[in-house]
Write a structure and sequence with these properties.
- The chain is an alpha+beta fold.
- The protein folds into 3 domains: 1-107 and 309-362, Baseplate protein-like domain - beta roll fold (Phage tail proteins - horseshoe like beta roll fold, Roll), CATH 2.30.300.10; 109-218, no CATH class; 245-302.
- The chain is built from 8 helices and 21 strands.
- The strands form 4 sheets. Strands 1, 2, 3, 4, 5, 6, 7, 13, 14, 18, 19, 20 and 21 form a 13-stranded mixed β-sheet that branches. It has a 3-stranded mixed β-sheet with strand order 9-12-11, with helices on one face. Strands 16-15-17 form a 3-stranded mixed β-sheet, covered by helices on one side.
- The radius of gyration is 23 Å and the shape is globular.
């Protein structure tokens, strides 16, 4: 088998357009010529399809706040707001009585949450804030749900509520973290909380009947049943970069100055050298917050197994046997222990004649570091917000 993977697996895809209240405003799109989807773990997913530009489809797709809903084998796979609808026509290809082709690009509903920023006090308008930061301690799930609910869900100010957004059932995730934020994209906060959580945590949106559910979940460990290796013939490419920690001990300094400044020490070297970093916690209001800031710095500089893998679907190891966010096993090198990592993205291409081709992308870094500049900018903004300083960083 070459790098193009096995023969595509047949699957049934259904597409329609809905309004912002999830009511269909188009007929089912049956004459599409291509579908391309990229599902991402803890990031906004996206897709596009191309179809003949019938007037009814063009009108529906270009309706303000319209959404695309795509089902795979009867289950909603990707749904969310339309972002771009280019239309192309030329007489030689389409004929003078033809409509041309429209390409509809959309994101999943997580993009609507990404379009909200976290207010220090979400119960007040942006111009009427009475506190410097939003700070809360609790389980990662409780904090995530609180941020989404108060900045875009049913608990938000009326003009900030995302239509049909509700909180899904609790996953019962345990552990305790502290998080502070002010005027950051809510999804940046969600990823930050996930980064310091004691266990792996995922979040997503899913259209369920007449609701858009925000769901927090624990990725399923499938390392005993799903693995990607040379011998399996499902390992297309691999880049494995183990890296020692940059910090094992954090020295955090509170908001006072001189000999009165509170100094704490967090972390242990474990199997590694003692590598110290000073964390300037001038923006921390209390000990708990200073400890959280120091712990976050240690977590951001801990030992990593940087893994970027492109794999192929094969029998028994297909999409559906595993899901986005699941932990799978990867053979980094023959004779070496398998490396467990998350299915961080799934790329799907569908052709009406050839069927679907699916490529899982394995490794958090392979998905989240596609745009290193954006990651660096997020880190800078987060650090500045913790200290109460703000600058404008050009995109």
């Amino acid at each position: 088998m070459g790098v193009h993977g096995p023969a595509p697996v047949e699957a049934q895809y259904t597409i329609w357009i809905s309004d912002h209240n999830l009511a269909p405003i188009s007929q089912q799109v049956d004459d599409w010529s291509s579908i391309s989807l990229t599902l991402r773990f803890n990031e906004v997913s996206s897709g596009e399809f191309t179809a003949p530009a019938h007037p009814e489809l063009v009108a529906a797709a270009r309706t303000p706040m319209a959404r695309v809903v795509v089902e795979r084998n009867g289950e909603i796979l990707l749904a969310g707001p339309i972002e771009y609808t280019p239309l192309k026509y030329d007489a030689e290809t389409h004929g003078y009585d033809g409509h041309g082709d429209i390409t509809v690009r959309w994101a999943d509903d997580l993009a609507l949450i990404a379009g909200r920023i976290s207010y220090p006090n979400p119960t007040l308008a942006a111009t009427a804030q009475d506190v410097a930061k939003w700070t809360q301690t609790g389980t990662p799930e409780v904090l995530m749900r609180a941020l989404v609910d108060s900045n875009g869900g049913p608990g938000a100010l009326s003009d900030r509520r995302i239509p049909c957004l509700v909180l899904g059932a609790s996953a019962g995730i345990t552990g305790s973290v502290t998080w502070s934020t002010r005027f950051q994209p809510v999804t940046d906060d969600l990823r930050g909380i996930a980064a310091i959580a004691p266990t792996r945590v995922g979040f997503r949106t899913q259209q369920v009947d007449g609701d858009i559910e925000f769901q927090v979940f624990t990725p399923t460990d499938r390392t005993g049943s799903i693995w990607f290796s040379r011998s399996m013939g499902n390992l297309v490419s691999l880049d494995h970069e183990p890296e020692a920690p940059k910090t094992t001990v954090g020295i955090g300094g509170g908001k006072d100055a001189g000999v009165n400044r509170l100094i704490i020490e967090r972390g242990t070297p474990g199997d590694w050298w003692r590598l110290e970093t000073f964390v300037d916690g001038a923006g921390a209001d209390n000990l708990t917050e200073l400890q959280a800031m120091t712990d976050e710095e240690i977590a951001n500089n801990a030992e990593v197994q940087r893994l970027a893998v492109v794999a192929a679907d094969v029998d028994g190891q297909r999409f559906g046997d595993y899901q986005l966010g699941d932990v799978v096993a990867v053979e980094a090198a023959p004779g070496q222990p398998d490396v467990p990592d998350i299915v961080s993205a799934v790329e799907i291409e569908v052709d009406p004649g050839d069927g679907e081709t699916i490529r899982p992308i394995i490794g958090v870094n392979s998905a989240q570091m596609l745009n290193p500049a954006a990651a660096v900018q997020r880190d800078i903004l987060r650090a500045l917000s913790r200290r109460g300083a703000f600058v404008e960083i050009p995109l």
